[in-house]
Amino acid sequence: MDNAAIARTLEEVADLLEIQNANPFRIRAYRNAVRTIQTQTTPLARLLGAGRPLTALPGIGKEMASHIKEMVETGTLGYRDELLGEMPRSLIELMRLPSVGPKKAKKLWDELQISTVEDLEAAAKAGRIAGVPGFGEKTQQKILAGIHDHRQHSSRMLLADVEQIVDPLLEWLRQSPGLERLEVAGSYRRRRETVGDIDLLAVAKKPAAVMKHFLGHAWIEKVEMSGDTRASVILGSGLQVDLRAVPPESYGAALVYFTGSKEHNVKLRRRAVERGLRISEYGVFKVDPDDAEAEGEWIAGREEEDVYAAVGLAWIPPEMREDQGEIEASVIPGGKSAGKKSRLPRLIEQEDLKGDLHMHSTWSDGRNSIEEMVEACAARGYEYMVISDHSKALAMTNGLDAYRLREQWKEIDEVRARHPEIRILRSMEVDILADGSLDLEDEMLAGLDVVLISLHSRFDLPEAQQTERVLRALEHPEVSIFCHPTARLINRRRGVEMDMDVVLRRAAELGVAVELNSNPHRLDLRDSHLRLARELGCKVVISTDSHRTRELDLMRYGVDQARRAWLEPGNILNTLPYKELVKTIR
DNA sequence: GCCGTTTTCGGCCCGACTGTTTTCAGTCG
Which of A93, A200, A371, A563 could bond to A347 as cystine, CB 3.0-4.6 Å? Predict the structure, then answer.
């Protein structure tokens, strides 16, 4: 079993235990193990094979290690099957419906033998749910609405799509009477590639007035709940928006809390408890040792920096708040007043980038001419840029053969003469053919300043074969950059199967860079692969793969993603000035 | 079930809103 399958199985155990009303800390132990496994870049089977103790991993103890060993060896987990003998697996899906949790799912099963969403819908429509103890008319209606939404909107929206909705919403909210501050928190602020819902945080002396103004927005289709400090609504687009209001002295604490992630917050709060403190969305409080129940003395919470400082930490950029070691890295040696620095990385910023290394023109499937692309890049202050049209195997994009490529070089020379303000590099996005050879003759490859290679076909090859194919392509001495390596499209196409560990290791040895494609549909490589690339010393480029001038602005999504992978300017090739770049790039 | 610069036992993050079980459990984030 691969890591993803192992994680899924343990997750299922956690869900089933939850329905069984097991010890909540035991359930949490399973979920912690799942997280550890999901973020593990090396296959657990390989660790086991090498005789490495799994218990060295955080959250993996004797029991989990033995579960994992069993799964690796037999491909299944007896304990999970045992639990499934007591209740159907489909109860887990019930539990995912809004207003249905583990307790209610169990009750539905015990009382009415309901185990699927379909059964539940039929029972609710027949009015049989309202009669179950603990349920009522309102819950029955909520369940029906929840089933509807569940079917309508099960996938998370792309960050870029959500931005289109959030911006006007913010503009509206800024007109609220008495509003002092407003921020988007949640996974949007952490710049995750997809967003499940929007968390808004407002500061106001009279929060009720802000809530009222918010609820008057025309896009709101349904109000899920509303109180003086919280409101939750569903927009016509299906997106859920939560607004919370806090007093000014709680702004920082609330922003930390609502930005998350949940795991980051848990660790932060645990750190507070170890220091006799308590962190909530209202602030950091000193716990009274004689009366742990009392509210305690408020000591911080106005700004995020104050909250982190109260537990001896430097402020952590939101993109890093995933409990991936950022809390440990943010420790300020000697405490907050020691004047020492934390080990947090200096994350890449868009201003660090000196050029865009992947874009198309009307020579293949781009919408703008070379000169228009050049002017647009120059307007963005870039020192250099790359023209990289498709190769002939991608006929549908009007890919170039050797003859047309030579013709293109003539045009590039002319544009170069007219635009001395920017360096224009000759390139091509060359298809990796099925056998790993490249879709352009060697002498033409040698005439390019930069050679990009990409997978655009045969995404379905088995892992071993796909890995071989890619390795062969990487070995070609002219290759500079491996673009959108997994070829995934978020919510639409899963990436190819290949052994990323092997591929990135070889790329690092050969000096081939890997692309972080900034297109919000791609964001390929993904965060965990980028972290692996960094660990292996493999260079990364952040490019837009633009097919029209305005797509050059997609670069910021790539930067967001790089920041989530802890990348610093030194990890990124296109932070280098032109002279250094041409020396470094293969 | 996991973990340990106060611990190998006794802890393990915090609060708002809703609906229903009239005093609070369940859900959610």
Answer: A563
